[in-house]
């Protein structure tokens, strides 16, 4: 077991004590990656990392046991296809002293059949919850190694955006520009994760992807891109205009920029997340565009591209130093254009540090 895993298990057990949690069950995925630095092959066979106050164990499909053993010395309770997982699970719970845990926290991303298998193995009076106040709370605050990987990925995304600015031109299709963006991520050893290229009216669809639409003179183009390298992602949105900007563009861009600045100013340790959302939303509403800001102000980012904390109008999450999240207000005018400006930040004691080094000014092409 690595020193990082030992440290994270100790931190997790401290949270378990504080919350009265007797068992945490994690399926292969990002939670397991955070704890162990890897996860076994995920498929329909139940595989669970079971963490109790003193011990931990794997419920492990025998098919995957040998391939997983090289990564960990945690005890395995193997089961084969002809046996099924019920007895192995019961033995695992007994082995770690969690037959009656009192309260269990379930990985909210696990398959429903895995969750039901576990719940059926526990006493009916076991309190059930997900992981926000245990594992989720720990994951929200990034350590230095996570910061370095996120910062590195942000640099790649900056360069991919600059490559997009260099390539975009009237007459090319959104899909062609998206291909250039993907090629840049790949050239730096990153896996392209998503590529929103929304020209003209397509930019008014917040989650447009990239289509056969031809980019034309006078288009405002939303470019929202991200990749992944060394287990961590990037995410950035900037704007380009082809030639002369459409009527009203400069005014709306300035409003969105002021909303970004208001959110950045509001984001401090100890502030409730909904206050940050309210700061951005007030700027846009006061300018008369409130009905066109149709999504939350931000989302957390870590191993997952979207994870807590969420910067929403209802979020009661208290922001803490080390949290990483996006600030990305937008205004979307149907049939005309959309404008979104997005930066990923890490919260420091005196406020946000922005990962990107790129200006949020519109890039005028031609």
Quick overview:
By secondary structure, the protein is of the alpha+beta class. The protein is built from ten helices and 18 strands.
Structural key phrases:
Creatine Amidinohydrolase, Chain A, domain 1; alpha+beta; Creatine Amidinohydrolase; 366 residues; 5-stranded mixed beta sheet; 6-stranded mixed beta sheet; elongated
Structure in words:
The protein is of the alpha+beta class. Helix content is 35%, strand content 24%. Helix 9 runs antiparallel to helix 10 (273-286). The protein is elongated and about 70 Å long.
- Rg estimate, integer Å: 23 Å
The N- and C-terminal alpha carbons lie at a distance of: 56 Å
Strand order of the largest sheet: 4-3-2-1-5-6
The portion of residues forming beta strands comes to: 15-25%
Number of strands: 18
Secondary-structure topology with pairs:
Elements: H1 3-19, E1 23-26, H2 30-36, E2 48-51, E3 56-61, H3 62-69, E4 75-79, H4 86-95, E5 103-106, H5 112-121, E6 127-129, H6 135-140, H7 144-167, H8 174-187, E7 191-199, E8 220-229, E9 232-233, E10 236-242, H9 249-266, H10 273-286, E11 298-300, E12 307-311, E13 324-327, E14 330-333, E15 337-340, E16 343-348, E17 351-354, E18 363-365
Helix pairs in contact: 7-8, 9-10
